[in-house]
Fold this sequence. Notes:
The radius of gyration is 39 Å and the shape is elongated. It contains seven helices and 32 strands. The longest helix has 74 residues. By secondary structure, it is an alpha+beta fold.
Amino acid sequence: MSCAISGEICEDPVVSLKSGHIFERRLIEKQISATGRCPITDQDLSKEDLLSVKMHKNQKSSVVKPRLTSSAGIPGMIKSLQDEWDAIMLETYTLKKHLADVRQELAYALYQKDAACRVIARLVKERDQARTALADVQGNMAAAVGKYAPASNEMELEDEKGINAEIVRKMQSTAKKLSNKARKTKVKGLQLSVAKPDEISNYSEVSSHPLHSSSRPGILCLDLHPKSQNLVITGGSDHSAIIFDKDTSKILDTLKYHKKKVTDVLFHPTSNVVFTTSADSTAAIWGPNKKNKFQAQSILGDHKKEVVGCTLHPSGDYLITASMDASWCFWDVETATCKAKVTSEKISKGYTKVIFHPDGLILGGATADSTVRIFDVKQQNNVHNFTGHEGNITGLAFSENGYYLGSADETGVVKMWDLRKLRNFHTITTKGALTDLTFDASGMYMMLTGSKVQVYTVKGFSVVKEFDDHTNTVTSAMFGKDARFIASTSKDRTLKFYAAS
């Protein structure tokens, strides 16, 4: 009888009551003391499970005991090598078995991970669908409430909280700090340091950067950080926004959430927060995560159609979004709650642009019926309308002094409105459609975008410089601090900077 472990003839054989294998008592007892398991079947095994095998004395006498190594010579050495080989084989067998078990466990764990990822993806999709459904229900309920509201209310507030007294107090306090006198002093100071017309006339392209996906080419909007002028955020047709560092020419972050093109982007001036709006009928408030990468922290989903733009109150506490569903919403930035959703029976066409007045008490909005509308934000009343455009209004901006409002349309017409006299005091007709209009912080320059970038002086409205470096429609442009550089974006997928070379 040979041992199942060593393969040698047993001197003191025992048989396992559980597996039936025969072992040398000395070897199996060492194995039990070390592991407590059978080396062949890996079952639990104790010394009580071993049964001695009785051999007939004639059988015992017929077994030739191995000689001692010291007296065996070369055969003894071979025997020692054989013993070592047997031990290695036993260890190898154990390792192979353990490896097979680990592989099986790993395969099971990977299967569980894949299944968990699929479940998580499905739950996230269901959550988003539930949020959308909830927003639709809330909108339908608000519409139903508005349907039976008293007819004497021209503007319908779809948030019962509304713009309350505390919000009005904050807005008035901000407006007081930004009074005409203080704003006039600030503007005069800026005019002393702003670039002169002859300097801007010598500007040229200093850098060009292709951004966003080439499969859906086109950058539709941009914003410069009010404090850190090296930071630029752009929104594209590829449904994403990109934060770009002008100084290092590197993309710092890509913001992905929206399902359709991004229509507007905006930096918060004092907090590490950005805002985006999209044609998917949502707006988003973005903040940094633990890895200092921006993620969508709040989704603003009260609109039913494309959200065309957003504008931040001078205090930085409130945001207004406007939509093609002919409504604008007043949001508390900190809580991401809609304080008021404003519509009117007299306004049936959707909005194309929206902008806060520098004092934060007046809102300018352009609607698809080519009308520029002025709202009292505190009362949510449409207090005045400017008419005269014949095409969709694509650009809208207040001059920093607070006296003038500029509007541009897709027919190439620019109109300047005097807010004190409530009349159009100047009109510019350009060649080709216009896509945007903006003023610099000093109020000395106005910039138009369309087939090219055009810079005008506000006093006299003479052309200072034209930039035609883009190969497709220019969608937006902004002045840097003191107009020392200009940034522009285009449907040709490039972000360009112009400055003195």
